[in-house]
Amino acid sequence: MELRSALPAFLQGAAGLDIDRKKAYRYAAYAAVPLMVLFLAILFYGRYADLKKSVGSASRDLAAMEALQGEYLVKKSILDSMAARASPSGESAVAVTEGIARTTGISGKIKSIKPLEEKAEAGYAESPVEVRLEGVDMNQLVNFLYRAERGDRLVVVKELSIKERFEDKDLLDVVLRASLISRQ
After folding, report:
1. Full-model pTM
2. Who contacts 166 (Cβ-Cβ below 8 Å, separation ≥6)?
């Protein structure tokens, strides 16, 4: 009960204070300024936290973009080197295949080279051939495929079928489909 009677007495005492108007405004300003500073601090801290989160997200995005840029540059250099190897138009896929076979020493083992239907797309032409090799050993085949892949001209081996010979298991009969890529 004392608390109930103390509160009205306190309020009456505070109302009875003889505070002039200037002092009242000054006390009100003393109370309002810290409250305003606290309000602004909370408001700006929330904004600061959002900005900090945005900066972290942007830096992660930037790192991802830099990784993609590096990957792009690697792939572009590979593509540029392949484009440089694309033969000028008019070169025969049969002649290029025979040249590869001649440099690897298996030109005598070519059973047939059959040109297939040529396809053109986006400034490049694909001239496919079907090559039948008989009686080659694995080393000769690997050398032929390596020379086709790493040679002067852009040759892409699309299909490869290998069968052992019945009379000699070390020799192979090979059918492959390769395409010469050339600029139009």
Report:
1. 0.58
2. none
